[in-house]
Design brief:
The chain contains twelve helices and 27 strands. It is of the alpha+beta class. Among the domains are: about 100 residues, no CATH class; about 100 residues, no CATH class; about 90 residues, no CATH class. A five-stranded antiparallel beta sheet has the order 13-19-15-16-17.
């Protein structure tokens, strides 16, 4: 009878454990990352008797956590991708809406600027029209400035978000290191038994970490998990957490980046970060925000440079040669890397030589101790070098549209690096410097006339200053007398200009005006021998609109991106690029959400608590408990019957 009682007792204990585990499952049905548990039962080792082996009851082998590492890894990976795409889509949408805002973006204001210029071309002496053009120029500069400020605000927001997110990562990494220690201790105390609830708590923390950055794990024999983030940067090793920190960009101190902190050493790991919120922030800044800032600066510089150049080729209402309409943005200085040798004191100056060749990019200038190499950062391509600074500047001027010279300092060391930004700050710095509408150079500085005694059928038109080399208007008219025998014009200031009416009619000719520059004109027809044409200062040019028409023409010309786009086309291309990447981010977000939900569903099918199933188990184990209790009751009754029989 003792064996019957022992069997019943083993059953009571087994079903008591089973009921407790089912109850534990039910109460944790809403606990994040909880894995369902199950009591594993088996028959005890049978006992040998004369009649053979007899059963000895049931035993509890342990409490199993229903968990699959592969399914869980799929959930974590897809969650990290989802959170990266969510952050990228959110920021991209914000940028896309800003760029497409008709009240705040550049294209409509640029259109209004050229419309005001077109209006002035119909009445070049109109003071109100001149004032309207100045007002539109100031509005255009203001929109460029405000756009740059808005982009800087987005950049500041990313800095704040990075700092907050890194604090969250550090909190989780320390928590994971602590729970690793608890699991190691618990596993040591329990032999082979696993601390299931601690494992679930750790997995919950890993899931939260994956929302911030991509996570991979490697399990150790002692139960700890070594945790790596991004592209392999270690975060937790056994019970030790690696703290992340913030470092300043080596060139731009206001741009924060991700680093690891070891004692007093701070090592930048920005390039190692991928996935999660951190990955989304960094991807947006690099692929969209930096590109937008560069294109905005490129268009601002192109507009200001082209307008200034055309202004200088004209004559204002006061009869003076034109001056810059916008602030000169063609010069910028380098930024030294914070990693440079402490003795480095050099600063390099960049000067735009051809705005048509400029790229929407920044550059890195590297010095190897002898020569320089320039790398375009938008595609990480070395565009020149290794060369001496002079030779490199010549090569870069021809291919990239700017030159580089030593501005100040005398010490540069091997390994030193410098950031070159020909266009990045232009949108922030553009400003109108003309305040008087009379200073708009709408007229051409010179004009042609012909003697009343001319007998040929010649027209000279489309004349304009094409290159200005000085500031002096001719005090004495310049005459061009046609020599039919030599098929040339004899210039009163010296020299001749070839012109064969039979072959050159309608072609452009050029005359060099001392103290001013090169003046281009078109001759059509056949002049008679001795016909005289006079080039003189446009003293009565108040109604002349030739130069302002050339300004208007700039709107449609391919002035940006190696003569591949107009101003509007360059900006439209940016809006399209941002729009496409925004749609891609949204598609990526939606697609990764589907993948995450599928992975989670598969994982929960195994690990999740099903209340219907647990309720059925509760009834099943309750019935088992009651049946086993009846075994004990029967054993008790049999034992009492035996006692009563003996007592007689």
């Amino acid at each position: 009878m003792a064996d019957l009682l022992s069997i019943g007792t083993s059953g009571l204990l087994a079903y008591q454990q089973s009921l407790a585990t089912v109850s534990h499952n039910i109460t944790n049905v809403n606990t994040d990352n909880y894995s369902r548990q199950r009591v594993e039962l088996s028959a005890q080792t049978p006992q040998f008797t004369g009649a053979g082996f007899e059963g000895a009851g049931v035993q509890v082998n342990g409490v199993t956590r229903l968990y699959d590492q592969f399914l869980t890894d799929q959930v974590v990976t897809n969650l990290s991708t989802l959170k990266q795409n969510e952050k990228l889509a959110q920021l991209s949408n914000e940028l896309d809406n800003f760029l497409a805002d008709p009240k705040a973006s550049v294209p409509p204001v640029l259109q209004n600027f050229f419309k005001a210029m077109q209006d002035l071309s119909t009445s070049p002496s109109s003071a109100p029209d001149r004032q309207v053009l100045l007002s539109q120029a100031e509005t255009l500069a203001s929109v460029f400035n405000n756009s740059a400020v808005r982009l800087d605000s987005l950049r500041d927001g990313i800095n704040i978000d990075l700092s907050a997110t890194i604090n969250e990562v550090n909190s989780l990494s320390q928590g994971l290191a602590d729970i690793n220690r608890d699991i190691i201790l618990a596993k040591g105390l329990g032999g082979n038994a696993l601390p299931n609830d601690l494992l679930d708590q750790r997995q919950a923390m890993i899931s939260k970490l994956s929302e911030l950055v991509n996570v991979t794990t490697i399990e150790q024999s002692n139960g700890a998990l070594n945790i790596f983030i991004g592209k392999g940067q270690s975060l937790v090793v056994n019970t030790k957490a690696q703290m992340l920190g913030i470092s300043k960009n080596e060139f731009i101190a206001t741009q924060l980046e991700v680093a690891v902190v070891t004692g007093s050493a701070v090592t930048n790991i920005n390039s190692q970060i991928a996935g999660g919120k951190l990955g989304g922030l960094l991807e947006f800044r690099q692929d969209l925000l930096d590109v937008t800032s560069s294109v905005l600066g490129l268009v601002a510089l192109a507009v200001s440079e082209d307008m200034n150049a055309q202004q200088q080729l004209g004559l204002d209402l006061n009869g003076a040669l034109g001056a810059n309409l916008f602030k000169d943005l063609t010069n910028s200085t380098s930024l030294a890397s914070s990693l440079n040798n402490a003795s480095t004191d050099t600063v390099y100056q960049t000067t735009v030589t051809n705005s048509n060749l400029l790229q929407a990019s920044e550059y890195r200038l590297d010095y190897d101790g002898t020569n320089y190499t320039l790398t375009r950062l938008s595609d990480n391509k070395a565009v020149a070098g290794p060369l001496s600074l002079g030779a490199l500047s010549t090569a870069v001027s021809a291919s990239e549209g700017f030159s580089i010279v030593l501005n100040s300092g005398s010490t540069v060391n091997a390994g030193d690096k410098f950031l070159i930004s020909p266009v990045r700050r232009s949108a922030r710095d553009i400003a109108v410097i003309i305040k008087d509408g009379n200073l708009i150079a709408a007229a051409s500085p010179l004009r042609f006339s012909q003697a009343s005694t001319n007998t040929g059928n010649t027209i000279i038109d489309r004349d304009k200053l094409i290159t200005r080399t000085g500031n002096t208007l001719p005090g004495t008219p310049i005459t061009l007398t046609f020599d039919s025998a030599g098929n040339q014009f004899t210039v009163s200031t010296g020299g001749t200009i070839a012109y064969n009416p039979a072959t050159a009619s309608g072609s452009a000719l050029t005359i060099t005006v001392a103290g001013l520059g090169n003046y281009q004109f078109t001759v059509t027809g056949t002049p008679a021998n001795g016909d005289v044409f006079t080039l003189s200062t446009n003293t009565a040019g108040q109604g002349d609109n030739r130069n302002v028409l050339d300004m208007v023409a700039l709107q449609q010309q391919k002035q940006v991106k190696n003569s591949g786009a107009s101003y509007q086309e360059a900006f439209a291309g940016l809006i399209t690029e941002v729009g496409v990447k925004t749609r891609q981010a949204e598609f990526g977000r939606d697609a990764s959400n589907v993948l995450y939900e599928r992975a989670l569903s598969s994982q929960q099918a195994l690990s999740g608590v099903n209340l219907d199933e647990e309720a059925a188990n509760l009834i099943r184990f309750q019935q088992g408990y009651q049946a086993v209790a009846r075994i004990i009751q029967t054993a008790d009754e049999l034992f009492n019957t035996l006692l009563r029989a003996v007592s007689r």
